[in-house]
Amino acid sequence: MSSPGSPVYILGVGMTKFIKPRGQVDYPEMGYEAGIKALADAGVNYDDVDTGIACYAYGDSTSGQRVFYQFGMTGIPVYNVNNNCSTGSTGLHMARKFLSHGAGNVALVVGFEKMFSGSLQTFFSDRTNPLDKSYIMMANTRGVDPKRPGAAQFFGNAGREYMEKFGATKEDFAEIARVNHEHSRRNPYSQFRDVYTLEQIMKSPEIWDPLTKLQCCPTSDGAAAAVLVSEKWLQGHPELRERAVLIAGQAMTTDSPDLYSKSAIDLIGFAMTKSAAEQALAEANVAPSAIKLVELHDCFSANEMITLDALSLCSPGKAHEMVRNGDITYGGRVVVNPSGGLISKGHPLGATGLAQCAELVWQLRGWAGERTVEGVGAALQHNLGLGGAAVVTVYKRADGEKSKRLSDKELEGVTGIAGRGYNPAVEARAVTQTEIEVGRSRRAASGWMDGGKVGETRL
C-alpha cells in the first residue's frame, strides 16, 4: 500500500435531486448545478481550482470538459473517469492522490449521468464485453437467462449462495429493502420516497430470485460533486476549517483471483471490498466495531447483505442476523444508508459515489436534520463496480469531534453560506444566483459556454 501523503479534506459538496431517466435534464445542466453548489458550499471560487475530474459511465469523450467549461475556461487539466458503478468514488480517490502528494491544492470532482430507462445495457456489440469471463463463470455455475437483467442475476445468485451457506432467508433481503425505503422518506434528493411494508416488498414482481423489484435500484439521472483541498491550502484559510471533513482513510482495489473461484459471492467482488475496507480502516486507525454510520453500495438488497459481511461490520456469515436484530437502522449498531441508499435514492452511475460522500459530509457536520446520526466519530463509504473496482473511504470531522445534530440557531450559519438561504442537507433546491456568483470563475468566464443563469439549471 502506498503512502497516504499529507491530509486531504472534503470542503464542499453539492448534488441535484435524482430523477427518473426521462430526458428532462441534460448532463451539462446537472453537472453544472452540482458543481456550483459544491464550490459555493466550500466557499471556493473556480479560479482557485487547479484540478478537475469528471465522472460518468455513459457519454462521449470529453463530456467532462463540456461541464467544466461552464464554471470557467481557466485551462486546468480535466480528467474524464469511467469505472463502472464505482466511477464517482474513483474520481474522489484520484483527487485525493493528487492533492496528498503535492500535485495541486484544490480539486473539483463532478459526477453526472444521463441514463436510459430500464436495466443497464451494453452498447458496443462489435467488441469484447469486459465482463465476458464473469458471464462465462456464471453460466457454468448457476446458469444465465438472456431474458433477465444480467446485473440482477450476478447479485441475486450471490444472495442465493449466502442463503445456502449461512441460513439467510428471502425475508432478510426484503427487510434490507424495507429499511432503505423507510430511510429515503427523510431525504429530499431521493428518486423514490415511498415507504413499503415487508409484505409489499416481497410481493412486488420477481426480477431474479430472491430479488423482487423493490429490492433493486432504479436507473436515474442526476449529479453530485465535491471540492477537495490540501492541508496546506486549508491552513491558509482557517475560517473554513469548521466545515472541512477529513478523508482519514481510503483504498481502491480491483479483483483478486478469487473472482473465478466458482463462488457467486466472490463473483461480485467480495474479496476486493474486504481488502479495500481493511486498508482504509487501518489507515484511519478505526476498528470495524467503531463504525456507526455507513453509506454502502446497495445496488440490490443482496449486495448490502454481502457487503455488511465484507466490511466486517458483523461476524463472518452473520449479516442476516444483523438485519434481523435491527442493527442496520436507527437505534441499532450501525445506521446503513440513511440517504435511502441506491435502492431508493437512485443510481446515476457517475454520481453515486459523490452522493454518498455528500451524505456523510452533511451527517458529520450535523446538518442532516431528522436523519442525523449522532455520536459518529468515523463514517464509512463503500462504492463498487463490477469489472471491477471497489473504493472504501473513511471520513472524520477535521476537529476530531463526534457528530451531533445542530440546533436551529446553529443552522442559521449554514443557511447563510454563499447567501443561499437554506440548508442543502434537508432541502433540494435549484442552484441560486448567489451560489453562482461565489463559485463561477471571475477571470475566465465564457459567454459562449455561459451556464450562469439561474433558470438554466433545474431539479
Question: What would a concise description of this structure say?
Answer:
This protein has 459 residues and is an alpha/beta fold.
What does this structure look like?
Helices cover about 35% and strands about 15% of the residues. Helix 5 (about 150-165) packs across helix 10 (about 300-310) and helix 6 (about 170-185) packs across helix 10 (about 300-310). It has one domain: Peroxisomal Thiolase, Chain A, domain 1. It starts with 7 loop residues before the first strand and ends in a 20-residue tail after the last helix. Helix 2 links the parallel strand 2 and strand 3. The strands form 2 sheets. It has a 10-stranded mixed β-sheet. The protein has helices at about 25-40, 65-70, 85-100, 130-140, 150-165, 170-185, 200-205, 230-235, 270-285, 300-310, 320-325, 340-345, 350-365, 410-415, 435-440; strands at about 10-15, 50-55, 80, 105-115, 205-210, 210, 220-230, 245-255, 295, 335, 380-385, 390-395. It is globular, with a radius of gyration of 21 Å. With about 450 residues, the protein is of the alpha/beta class.
